[in-house]
Design goal:
This protein is an alpha/beta fold and 512 residues long. It is 35% helix and 20% strand. It has two domains: 231 residues, Aldehyde Dehydrogenase, Chain A, domain 1; 186 residues, Aldehyde Dehydrogenase, Chain A, domain 2. Bound molecules: nicotinamide-adenine-dinucleotide.
């Protein structure tokens, strides 16, 4: 398969290097990786991973870069991110090619992911002039009490295979304007996308000049041990980790043990309630996109559908007829809507969940089989599945990273909300209703317990202007827009006495 390699850095001998720091390949000495494309199972590249002990070198360089970058005025740091955004616009199509190759996303979704990067650049540029604190009323005369935000230090980013560019970009573009260098441990499934993304930063650095130190952006590619080394390093005050719940737990323990900050974006198990008043035309479209988009491999994919008894059969019939005509196949073809699973393991997980759902009283409504004709040989393609269950059973409490949606009927709205919230994860949620009371109850304090709550909209597809993230086992982190930037900075409460007295707070008298 041709690789758009003009975006990639030169090879280090025979292999791509999995260690880039100070703008150069730094002699990675870890294991040899040969990731497979989900499209057809062929090797995408050969890459020499960084070893866990080499992470320290990237952190040292980032720490050194921090000493200068934190003093560069924020709007000037914004100018650097603006240059990155320009380069990404220019190379959008080729970057999307890499995402399709390594993550198996269809073209529209791969380009959408790069568009998120462009959007977050624009957001970050504006933000670079708005990193403002507060002026606070003080109880002491001739005093001034202000809150300031300063750069935090090198930020470690650990990212998942399914958003191989955007998750890093959300963190990195905001972190850079906040004054922080970035050390990225991408998924070992998607190293080329990571190298190409880092190249965009290097090209921007060359244009920007001396103010951008070479250690601003590093990539350390390897397995879990490389991520663990990043999580353990005390010089990395913030580790932003995106991936499965077990990964997040492991990272949080390491970062917590040294009292560092972690920002966790972990697995979801997203639900939707469809009420009697719902507009089923838009509900069917939203459900389908949310459940089968990215072949069910989004953290925000729809996995649990709670439908009022009065409309359950109608909705199932309409969904089944849409599912029967879904174009499944090569993600590079313009008409394909459902591309491949990432690999065989994902297929086994889907089959195991289907078997468990069957054992727990579920009825398979449609899908679930592997597709072998009309798709590239060597890839893992499946028919998205819907399983109807009498109640919410244990299998529905787990995230299965595949296009598998469970459906349960409800009679009372209270029961629907209770079932919706009864799982450990808390990322994305939605309700389809034209009843204003139901809508407000769902978005209100006793409604959905998730970080993302939608009304008459699907669970997937977030905008970068708002804060993204979820509660409970999803980790509680918030990334991207709104005031998420505050996590990438440190706050100082600054008291200035401009008088000639020394009044103490709380009226305390001491030694007078
Ligand atoms: P994963 O947890 O297997 O891997 C994610 C990253 O963590 C990879 O870079 C991996 O090498 C690294 N890693 C794994 N174990 C580690 C450890 N013990 N210490 C340090 N690093 C470790 O996840 P995946 O299969 O790549 O992605 C799918 C998962 O990610 C799903 O659960 C999905 O819901 C979740 N996800 C969440 C979000 C979100 O924003 N909430 C976004 C995308 C993906």
């Amino acid at each position: 398969m041709p690789i758009p390699n003009h975006l990639l850095p030169p090879k280090d001998g025979d292999y791509y290097s999995g260690l880039w720091t100070n703008g150069v390949a730094a002699g990675a000495n870890g294991e040899l990786l040969e990731p497979k494309s989900p499209i057809d199972g062929s090797a995408t590249c050969q890459l020499r991973a960084a070893s866990a002990s080499q992470v320290s070198e990237a952190v040292s360089n980032a720490s050194h870069a921090f000493e200068h970058w934190r003093t560069v005025p924020p709007p000037r740091r914004g100018e650097f991110v603006r240059l990155i955004g320009e380069l990404v616009r220019e190379h959008k199509s080729q970057l999307a090619d890499l995402i399709t190759l390594e993550a198996g996303k269809i073209r529209a979704e791969a380009e959408g992911e790069i568009q998120e990067w462009i959007d977050v650049c624009e957001f970050a540029v504006g933000l670079s002039r708005q990193l403002h604190g507060l002026s606070i009323a003080t109880e002491r005369p001739e005093h001034c009490l202000i809150e300031q935000w300063h750069p935090l230090g090198p930020v470690g980013v650990i990212s998942a295979f399914n958003f191989p560019a955007a998750v890093w970009a959300w963190n990195a573009m905001i972190g850079l304007v906040c004054g922080d260098p970035i050390i990225w441990k991408p998924s070992e499934q998607t190293p080329l996308t990571a190298l190409a993304c880092n190249q965009m930063v290097q090209l921007a650095s060359a244009k920007f000049g001396v103010d951008a130190p070479t250690g601003l952006s590093a990539v350390v590619i390897g397995r879990a041990d490389v991520g663990q080394a990043l999580a353990t390093d005390r010089r990395v005050p913030l580790v932003s980790a995106t991936g499965s719940v077990p990964m997040g737990r492991a990272v949080a323990e390491l970062v917590g043990a040294r009292l560092g900050r972690s920002l966790l974006e972990l697995g979801g198990n997203n639900g939707m309630i469809v009420t009697p008043s719902a507009d089923l035309d838009i509900a069917v479209r939203a459900i389908t996109f949310a459940a089968v988009g990215t072949c069910g491999q989004r953290c925000t994919s729809l996995r649990r559908l709670f439908v009022h008894t009065s409309i359950a059969n109608t909705l199932i019939e309409r969904l089944t007829s849409v599912y029967e005509t879904l174009p499944i196949g090569d993600p590079r073809e313009p008409d394909t809507l459902v591309g491949p699973l990432v690999g065989e393991q994902a297929l086994y997980a889907m089959q195991a969940s289907l078997a468990a759902a069957h054992d727990q009283g579920g009825t398979l409504i449609c899908g679930g089989d592997r597709v072998t004709s009309g798709v590239p040989e060597g890839g893992v393609y499946v028919q998205p599945a819907i399983v109807r269950l009498p109640v919410q059973t244990p299998v529905m409490h787990e995230e299965t990273f595949a296009p598998l949606m469970y459906m349960v009927e409800y009679e009372s709205f209270d029961d629907a909300i209770e079932m919706h919230n009864a799982v450990p994860q808390g990322l994305s949620s939605a309700i389809f209703t034209n009843d204003v009371r139901e809508a407000h109850r769902f978005i209100g304090p006793a409604g959905s317990d998730c970080g993302l709550v939608g009304v008459n909209i699907g669970t997937s597809g977030a905008e970068i202007g708002a804060a993204f993230g979820g509660e409970k086992d999803t980790g509680g982190g918030r990334e991207s827009g709104s005031d998420s930037w505050k996590q990438y900075m440190r706050r100082t409460t600054c008291t200035i006495n401009y008088g000639s007295e020394l009044p103490l707070a709380q009226g305390i008298r001491f030694g007078e």
